[in-house]
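Fig. S4 source data, part A: sequence.
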Amino acid sequence: MTKEYFQKLWNLNYPETVPISHLFKQDYLDRWFRIHSLPESKRYADNEDDWKILLSRQNEIITDLFGFDTPILFVTGKYNWGTKRTIHITDEKDIFKSFSFTRLDSIELFKFDSEQYDEPDIYRPAFTMTVWKTNYHDNILREIATDKIRGFFVSFDKNIIVAPYDGGIDFMIKDSLTKEYYKNKYRQWLSEREDGL
């Protein structure tokens, strides 16, 4: 897949946002929900029992949404705070060595949040094609769960974004009816907060 085709599909499916996962909730609140990866909303796994629960929950719900052996894309990126670094996160991390990434155009963060970002700040996204298989991406899920990397999985065919973070997973589902179905199915893993965070 070329970067031009990715951008075309992105604009068709998610015209109100850019491929930066923390923006999805504010841009598509009606299609968003979140689960927590550990009981009692514990944020980080600190023993092997926690890791078993975290990976089991994440693999179960992601497989339920994507299905088995589903072609998907993994999107990650690198923040550059006014610098001109040429090394990209996909070149730095060993877990990405088996994937072939395509770089997307840099995103000028100042245009999306002028209070948080300065004009030179950019985000340099990249994507790779892969297949969702249960436990196949556990190394990536672990790195995200410890906040060492950030990234998300997307299926344009199913119109679903799965965005793990250090504490749980954010989902953008194709419509509000389907979202409510999955929220109810996995209600024991939802936050007790009114805002769903």
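Fig. S4 source data, part B ends here. The chain has a mean pLDDT of 92.
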